[in-house]
Each structure stands twice: as structure tokens, then as C-alpha cells.
Amino acid sequence: MKDLHQEHMLSALSVAEKARYIASPNPMVGAVIVKDSQIIGTGFTHTPGSDHAEIDAIKDVYKKFKNEASQKLNNSSIYVTLEPCSKQGRTPACTRAIIEEGIKEIYIGSKDPLQEGIEELQKAGLKVKSGLLEDKCTEFNRGFFSRIERKRPFITCKIACSEDGGIGLTTGGDKWITSKKSREDVHKLRAASDAILTGVETVLADNPRLTVRDKTLSKLEGEIHPRRYVLDSSLRMQGNEHLLTDGLGTTIFCNDLRTVSYDKPPIKIVKAPGKSKRVSLQKVMDYLNKEECNTLMIEAGSKVNTSFIASELIDEIIFYIAPVKLGKDKINFSEFESSFSKIGTIDLELKEISKIGPDKKLITKPVYSKDGT
Ligand SMILES: NC(=O)c1ccc[n+]([C@@H]2O[C@H](COP(=O)([O-])OP(=O)(O)OC[C@H]3O[C@@H](n4cnc5c(N)ncnc54)[C@H](OP(=O)(O)O)[C@@H]3O)[C@@H](O)[C@H]2O)c1
């Protein structure tokens, strides 16, 4: 049975949802302030440089209770999905506001490895309880934690394919395999990602835009289009592709720099040579880490998928499976022998299955063996 504290933390998590498309590179945080068992204010992380969840929740109390707000906040409790910041960053420390408002206890979901908020609040005499619904709160910010702890983003690979695992045809032809509904869902995935990466063969074959084309999401504050990256070792793109001409900017990773007509802002060309003739994925990860990228989505073909899987860099694979078979001319989603439960030597753990229009959506997690076998 859930207790009241868990109920309040679940409310904070649900408010944190509002930060999903706008908070990065900051973590997505939700906060609720409670007095006499009633929620009196809620808040979430806004765009970088704007209010964090705790400040937003305090302001919400002021908005609702006006002259009585101070009195309401005094001796109240706050539930926050992540440890409050104690250091001045783009905004002042949240711990200071919590202390100044006389909040008397705080319930925290997960700890923030970059902050010392817990110690500071304890020193100020607040009752602090950390680790409430910790797994849920940590999972919610898996992108932020991945960047801080692993120095790379959380990586999701999206694969739209046929029942027999085909992502396209060697003979070319139809661009779309899955339904309009699935493609709309992909736009939400894109919006929730800081960046999208693809391979030059996909650009040459499909000329994708890799933008978010969803009316409700494009109304949100802040930049909604993810940053775009292409692996193109010898700069084979021509210069007339959407990614190079739509003005939204694209970063191209290559093995060797050479003069190309499109080498000017907002296009960026970065040398990231690997041992083979291809781009080094480790150098790409280092670059994304410097760019504070929390979440990366891969929307590429078989070769890029294979490189990322072989490097054990994929954290999640989302399949959209259309009820069609592409047969002998199909391009498989990876170069390994693969099914929806196994790719080469890697098992896929099924996390979620749902139906989208006529298609199936599978959310899976690759299980890499610890000894590399
Ligand atoms: N259904 C879907 O979800 C979906 C999504 C995307 C694409 N596709 C389809 O996939 C097909 C293209 O697949 P593809 O496998 O040929 O191409 P791809 O994976 O998109 O791009 C592969 C190219 O990327 C470059 N590259 C640079 N560094 C790399 C590295 N470390 N690892 C791997 N590649 C690297 C290589 O070209 P250089 O050596 O010249 O650099 C390589 O040939 C198209 O038919 C497209 O329609 C389907």
C-alpha cells in the first residue's frame, strides 16, 4: 500500500513530466509543497536559466495564497524528485530559497552527484529524507545521470521495420514502412531527445529532415528541435540535402577535413577519425558530452546501428513493426543475425509492448554480458 509520502512524490513526478521537452541539459525535476496534508503548490524545471522546480513551486504558493503565502510556506514540507541545487549555476541555489521560506522538511527522490543540497539543508535544521521512490526518480532522469556518471548520453535506437526485420529495400522504393500514427509517435521521441544521429547512407537514400513536426510540441517554450549529427567519414553529402539547407544546423563527423561548400554556420564539421576508415564513436561520445547532451536518438541504417550495438553503446531499442514482410530484398536492421529478442550475442529484454494503429511498438533493453562474451 502506498503511504502519503509516496503519493506526494508520485505527484511531484507527474508534475516533472512538464519539464520533459524543455529542461535539458538540466535534469527534469518536479516539486510539490504540502501543508496540513494538502498540496499548496507545484513546480517543475523550466528552460535553462529560468526557474528550477523548487522555485517554481514556491512562486505557485505565492500566486495562489498572495499575502498568506509566507505563513503557508512556514513549517511546510516539500517533495522534490531530485536533490535541490546548493550551488549557484545559471540560477541562484534552490536550497537558499527553501531555507529562507521556513520550509521545515524535505523528501527527496534521487541524489544529485553534482550538488551538496542535502548537507546544506540538514545544517540549516531541516528534516531531510532522501531516497523516496528513488528508482522511479532516477529512471526518470536517466539521460542526465548517464551524462554525469558515464560521460555520454542515454542512447535510444529507433527502428521502423517490417515483421521480418526489414528497414528498407536494397532496390530502393517506398520511404515509409510504418503507419502515420507510428511516425507521429516518433516525433514525440525526437522532441524528448537532445540530439539525433544518423549515417550518411541514410541521408543520401532518404534525405530526412530529422525535425519535430508536431503542432502541440512546437508551441512549447524553448528549442524543440533536437541537434542533428551525421557520420560521414569522407564528407559525401552534396550540400543540397535538407540537413544542410533548412537553416537549423547539423554537425557532421568526418575522418579528414576537406573543403566543401557547406562548411559554414549553422553547419559544423568535426574531425573524429577512428582506427578504421570510419568515424570514432568514442570521439563522438566525447563531443556530445562536451555539448551537455543527455539523450541521443539514433535514426540510422543497418551499418550505424551495427557499430553502436557492437560498441555496446545502445541503452534502449524501440521497434515500430508494421504488419508487412519485405522479403528477400530487405535491408536488415543490423548486420548481425538478429530477431526482436536477440541481436548477435546480445539478448533484448522486452520492457513494453503496445499497439499503434496497425503497428506494434516494442521497447527493449539490450543485455550486454559483463565479460563481453
Ligand atoms: N526504417 C528505419 O528506421 C530506417 C532509419 C534510417 C535509415 N533507414 C534505411 O537504412 C538504409 C541505409 O542504411 P545503411 O546501413 O546503408 O546506412 P547508415 O547506417 O545510415 O550509414 C552508414 C554509413 O555511415 C558512415 N559511417 C561513418 N562512421 C561510421 C561508423 N563508425 N559506423 C558505421 N557507419 C559509419 C559510413 O559511410 P562512410 O564510410 O562514407 O562514412 C557508412 O557507410 C536506407 O535504405 C534507409 O532508408 C531505415
Walkthrough of the structure:
With 373 residues, the chain is of the alpha/beta class. It contains 13 helices and 17 strands. It has helices spanning 4-16, 53-65, 69-73, 94-100, 117-123, 134-140, 142-150, 180-191, 200-206, 215-218, 242-245, 281-290, 302-310; strands at 30-35, 38-44, 77-82, 105-110, 127-130, 154-162, 166-169, 195-199, 227-231, 250-254, 267-271, 295-298, 316-322, 330-332, 342-343, 346-356, 359-367. The strands form 3 sheets. A 10-stranded mixed beta sheet has the order 11-10-9-8-12-6-13-17-16-15, with helices on both faces. A hairpin with a 2-residue loop joins strand 1 (30-35) and strand 2 (38-44). The two termini are 42 Å apart. The model has no long low-confidence stretch (mean pLDDT 95). The site of NADP nicotinamide-adenine-dinucleotide phosphate (NAP) has 31 residues, from strand 6, strand 7, strand 8, helix 9 and helix 13.
Unreliable stretches, pLDDT < 50, 5 or more residues? none
Would you tell me the structural class of the helices and strands? alpha/beta
Question: How confident is the prediction overall: mean pLDDT?
Answer: 95
- Name the hetero compounds present: NADP nicotinamide-adenine-dinucleotide phosphate
Into which percent range does the helicity of residues fall? Answer: 25-40%
Number of helices: 13
What is the beta-strand fraction? 25-35%
Form type: elongated
- Rg, nearest Å: 23 Å
Major β-sheet annotation: 10 strands, mixed
Distance between the termini: 42 Å
Going across the biggest sheet, name each strand in turn.
Answer: 11-10-9-8-12-6-13-17-16-15
**What is the tally of beta strands?**
17
The SSE string, one letter per element, is HEEHHEHEHEHHEEHEHHEHEEHEHEEEEE
